[in-house]
Amino acid sequence: MILVIEQILNGLQFGVMLFLLAAGLTLIFGIMGVINLAHGSLYMIGAYAGTWVAMETGSFWIGIPAALVAAALTGFAIETLVIRRLYTRDHLDQVLATFGLILIFNQSVTLIFGRQPLFTSLPGFFEGSVEIIPGLPYPTYRLLIIAVGLLVALGLYFLINRTRIGMLVRAGATNRDMVRALGVDIRLLYTIVFGLGALLAGLAGFMAAPILAVQVGMGEQILLVTFVVVVIGGVGSIRGAFVAGILLGVSDTLLRAFLPGLLRQVMTGPEADALGVGIASTGIYLLMVIVLLFRPKGLFPVGS
Amino acid sequence: MKRLLTAISLLALTSLPALADPVKIGMITTLSGPPGYLGEQIRDGFQLAVEKEGGKLGGVDVEVVVEDDGLKPGNGLQIADKFMNEEGIKLITGIVFSNVAGAAVPEIVDNGAIYISPNAGPSNLAGASCNKNYFVVSWQNDALHEATGVAAKKLGYKTAVALAPNYQAGKDSIAGFKREFGGEVTEIYTALDQTDFASEMAQIRAAAPDVVFQFHPGGLGIAFLKQYQQAGLLGQIPMVLSEPSLDSVILGAVGDAAIGIKGTTHWAADFDNEASKELVSAWKAKYPDRPLTTYGQQGYDTARLIASAFAKTGGVDDMDALQAALKEANFDSTRGNFAFGNNQHPVQDWFLTEVVAGADGKPEIKTVEKLREAAGDIYAAECKM
Amino acid sequence: MMQRKYLLAAIGLLVLVLVPFLTDITGQSSMLSLATRALIYGIAAASLNLVLGYGGMVSFGHAAFFGIGGYAVGILYQNFNEQTLFLGLVPGTDQMLLTLPAAMIVAAMLAAVIGALALRTGGVQFIMITMAFAQMLFFLFVSLKVYGGEDGLIIRRTNDLPFLNMRDKATLYWVVLAVTVLFFLGLRQVINSSFGAVLAGIRQNERRMEALGIPVFRYKLYAFVLSGMGAGLAGALMANAMRFTSPDMMHWMKSGELMVMVILGGVGTLFGPFLGAAALLVLESTLSSWTEHWQLGLGAILLIVVLGSRGGLVGLAGRIWSRK
Questions:
Q1: Do A115 and B231 touch (CB under 8 A)?
Q2: Has the ipTM of the complex gone over 0.90?
Q3: Residues of A in Cβ contact (< 8 Å) with B232
Q4: Where are the domains of chain A?
Q5: Smallest Cα distance from A14 to chain B, Å
Q6: Threshold 0.90, pTM exceeds
Q7: Number of A:C CB contacts under 8 A?
């Protein structure tokens, strides 16, 4: 039982991480209609900038603003220099442009930081683990990630539902042309949305840095899963991104943890292992296929 | 940038009478993407040996032509083709990954050129498909993990949890480990693109084995070790690792999270022989900021092997003589004992290592004892050479 | 105008036929294998373009068909070499006249299954669902030990064709060129046919076509299967040219690369994908021989092309042409 609770917590933590990335992507995707392949690069830039500053200053906490600022600035730069010129163009042109950006960012990071992964360490207070229920020690840092993820979700909820910007964002996701027709400065809105998405990606990158490897190409590793989250949740829906992120995180973790064992009880031998591992490793893709076959627009479709 | 005309430079030009053009050696390697540091180490280790001789290997002027394969088999093949047919290169080395080797090596040996692998030693080229023009200086892939099985057995462990990504090399690693370990092994397969191992950590804690063996090369390994420490498992359940999961670059990225971990290797920086000491001090002088890994050592040894053959043949004019001279492996390897088996893969010693806190507080790899002596690989028997 | 077009095509074809001699004279013989690969990628990209450009279905999983085509050749060769039966039924072969159709049939069957499921969705969801199927296939082949897992399958000898020495690189090139020309003519036929017109109609307005009583889903599925077959053919040729096949051919990055070739060349144009494939390969190969930081240059060039031109290279060429 304790193992199940622990695995659910693990899934939750993985899920909020996915949410942080997917939230920005789904907004950019849903409101601006831009397929931003370079979203993973923003995640990488957040991780590198934050980790480097944290290393130089010796403080994890100074790393946070550094990561946010670096990612947001890069986001602004991408939006104003590249994406803005492509709004009226085909989606596919954006794919090509942002693919080019991935190559540029990866190679630039290699030039600046070298090919070795960066060293990261945990902030002092969060190094150990706490016993949340008797017999279950859980790493404090992972609890911090869960907390940050939930806070961001809450903050976004207020931003989207209670502010003027949020209203425009909602309207933009539902009907882009209508917002433009109402005389709203759509350019500014786009820049803000893109910057916000970049900021969240940078935050996710920096939060992930002490757990994962800070290295070139780390963004592409997670990009695909993020897109899966966006699509399952429904393009343009923050709520969808949150639910899908958690759903995916928890089911992926539970599948990997328990499926091989369960199959071993009903089947015998190596076939059970092979099948279990096979399903578990393609689990997120299977899940997406199933969801899309029953709900072609995702769990929380936006607009028409 | 790429045409690193190795330091033949002024010295050679002024002090010697005009000689023939330098012998070109082609290096196809992976320099981009996450595993870019592997190719960088191999290249720089190789270049170090060339520079030490003042732009020569075995008294022969050489020029090393380096090109990035981007971890794409097709690009590797393309570069091999260009090297051989356009630049007239007859000696090629450098490939990091087995799948690039699978595409490029048959093409190279079929063209009568010689390929010397500084890293990958896949099984599909080691057995029945062995070739007289194909040499591996590093190791055969399976041997890496067999050594770890020997280590776990020798350390007296009876039960183990073995983890690896769910792909062929991952399965081979666990198979190799089991072959020599002999104890009870619980296998856990991770996904190839997985970065979060929390689920596996919980399973390891629940299984409570004597020892954990895991094979996650590069960035995956870094993430695994960090999360192992964060889960509070480090110090509770000992871990043994094969060489690719514990190189000095990984060590630099995880820091203290690696202290106490046991590893196996064919070479470590603290080896007590002349060739190894020379390499370590030369590397420190040239690249003070970058740790030297086994990949760098493999690149260096590859160059030293070529030097020993060139000293005999004077270059690549007589390929049969070169092939014979290479096969003798008559050089001072940085790892000590070295010979080629009948399939021209290494027969060498394997060692147990441990990560300890070094003098400067940073963790470093310390050699503990010899595990296997003159060990070859299981595919040699299938090779009819 | 029309005549000039044919003249241009004839000159282009002549140049392509002469490539082996040209590379021989200039001493750049590796350009020959580059040209072979460019033609093959051209077939794959043009196949993708049939659904992507003409049919408006953005498939992000075409590497699956490309890869399965390669594996068809690899597996048949392995069975031939070991004198075993595939699944205990099918004997292996090394005859290209058999392996190419086999690869196309297998790819078509796979495309029929994937298409039947994926075409229930549209837009972004279609992009992702095709990607998901390709990834599943990738993971399957990565874990298949019999076929070498991620190390791939080495095909010791290129498939044979009667009366030809396929070990000769120039012969192989000409064979690939011949297949490419046939493929191109077939593709042009399809696009200019009534089928192609319906497909274009569906792209522009699916509902209208439905209202006209056209079975939209079936038409889309036919196009998808045809496109998958083309990609399978390209994969089979690639396995022959490289004498190697690996899961790398099915990875989502390969799907992305094919897509980049189409967009770079010009979406929904006949020549675009071929131009795009050639441009990308040549760029990659020349840049990486100049510098180890070639990705920086490639990224910048892609960015400049997309910002500076509409409709990719074909669009660019068209504008230069009309400015004269």
A1: no
A2: no
A3: 128-129, 137, 139
A4: 2-294
A5: 7
A6: no
A7: 110
